[in-house]
Amino acid sequence: MINVSKLKKGIIIDHIEAGHGFEIYKELHLNDIDDVVVLLKNIPSKKMKQKDLIKIETDMQIDMTVLGLIDPNVTINFVKNGELYKKISLTLPKVVNGIMTCKNPRCITQYEDVKEIKFFLVNEDKKQYRCEYCDAYTTFIDEE
Amino acid sequence: MLKGRHLIEPGDFQLNEIESIMQLADNIIADPEGYSLVCKGKLLASLFYEPSTRTRFSFEAAMLRLGGEIIGFDDPNNSSVSKGESLGDTIRTIECYSDIAVIRHPREGTARLVSKFANEMPIINAGDGGHEHPTQTLTDLLTIRKFKGSCDNHVVGVCGDLLFGRTIHSLVKTLSRYQGIRFVFISPTELKMPAHILNQLDPKSYQETTSLDEVINSLDILYMSRVQRERFVSEEEYLRLKNYYILDKKKMKGAKPDMIVMHPLPRVNEIATEVDADPRAVYFAQAKYGMYVRMALIAKLLGVEDRK
C-alpha cells in the first residue's frame, strides 16, 4: 500500500467509483492548479471492493455539480488544520446549468454561441438530462 | 393574462389560457369586421428561416386582417444572417422595430433561445425543426372544438408517421391534458409513437395498432399525417411506407357518421381526394381555423382584443 501524507488543509474526494477518478481530475481541471494534488486509483475498499480517491491541498472552491454528474456516490471531506470539519455526500443534481452541452445534432445550441444551457434531470437511473432548448435527452458522460 | 408572453410550446400555456384564445377565435369568426382594426399601428416581424406556405401565409393574413402590418423575410439570405449575425443580435434589432415576432427555423430550440433576447416583444414559435409547432396545435384544438363541441371525452385516432411528426407530438401532449381522451395510435411498426411521448401518457389512455380498418369504427376523430420523405435515408423504404395508409371512401364507410377527419396538410397520398367531398373531412376548414386562431393569439399576446 502506498502511503500519502495526511492533508493539512483542503479537500478529499472519497468513494469515487474505480475508474472515475481521472474523469473527475480532468473535469475539475486539477491539471491547471499549482496546489498539491494526489490521485489514487484502485484502492482496496471494504464497501466498494475498489475505489479511487483524490486529495487536493487547496483553498479553492469545488463545483459540486460536476462531481454529482460524474459520480453522485462520492463523499467530499473538507479538512482544516489537519482535522476533518465538514463531510458531504452528493446526489445527482436536478438542474444543471452551464456545464453540460447538448448532443442533439439538430439543436440550435450546436450552431449558436449559447453560454449557459440548462438541463433538467429526467431519469436518475440512466443519468439522463433534458435540454432546455430542444428537449432531447442527453448524459454528461458518453458511455453512460 | 397572456399579454407580453411567448408561445414556444403548447405547455407554456395553461388550459384556461388556451380556452381564452379559443373563445376569442370564436368571437373573431362571429364578427371578423369588429376585429379588423384592433392591431392598427402594430407591426409583426415574420422571420422565416426555412420555407413555409400555409403557416407563413396564415400568420401574415391573420395580422393583416387585424389591421396590423408585417415586416420580415422568408429567405435568411436576405437578412444579416448571411453576414454572420447571431440570432440574439437579430432579435434585439428586430425588437427595436416590431411589436411581436413569429419565427420558423430548421434548428430545434431556436424559438426558446431567441425568446431570451426579447425583453418586451412576444415571440411565437412557428416551427423549430422536428421539435414543436404550437400554433398548429391551437389550430387543431379549435377545429376539434368547432366540430365536436369541446376537446374533452373523445377517442382520437392518430394515423401515419407517429415517429417524426412534430405536429402530432405537440397535439398528443396537449390533448392528454384534457378530460376523458383516449388515443388509438395507428402506424407501421417502423413509425411508431416514440417512447418519450408514450412515457408522458397514462398507459390506460392509449392503444397501438398497425390496422386502421380494425379501429376506424371506434374513433370520434381521425388525425391523418403525411409520411415525410425528408426523414428517410432509403427512397425505397419511403416509397414502401408512404402508401401504408390511404384513407378512401371505402374505409370511411366503416367510420362513425359524426367522426371527423383532420390533417395538418400538405397531404400526399394518405387521403384520397374522393374523401374531400365527405362532410366528415374537415381538413380545409382546419386550415382556415388556423388563421382565426392565430388572429386570436396575436391579439391576446399584444393585449389588444379589447380595442374592438
Question: What can you see in these coordinates?
Answer:
- The complex is a heterodimer of chains A (144) and B (308).
- Chain A has 144 residues and is mostly beta strands.
- Chain A folds into two domains: 10-89, Aspartate carbamoyltransferase regulatory subunit, N-terminal domain (Alpha-Beta Plaits); 95-138, Roll (SH3 type barrels), CATH 2.30.30.20.
- Helices cover 10% and strands 38% of the residues of chain A.
- In chain A, the strands form two sheets. Chain A has a five-stranded antiparallel beta sheet, with helices on one face. In chain A, strands 6-7-8-9 form a four-stranded antiparallel beta sheet, with no helix packed on it.
- The two termini of chain A are 31 Å apart.
- In chain B, strands 7-6-5-8-9 form a five-stranded parallel beta sheet, covered by helices on one side. A four-stranded parallel beta sheet of chain B has the order 2-1-3-4, sandwiched between helices.
- Chain B has two domains: 10-133 and 290-307, Rossmann fold (3-Layer(aba) Sandwich), CATH 3.40.50; 135-287, Rossmann fold.
- In chain B, 36% of the residues lie in helices and 14% in strands.
- With 308 residues, chain B is an alpha/beta fold.
- In chain B, helix 2 links the parallel strand 1 and strand 2.
- Classes of the chains: A mainly beta (144), B alpha/beta (308).
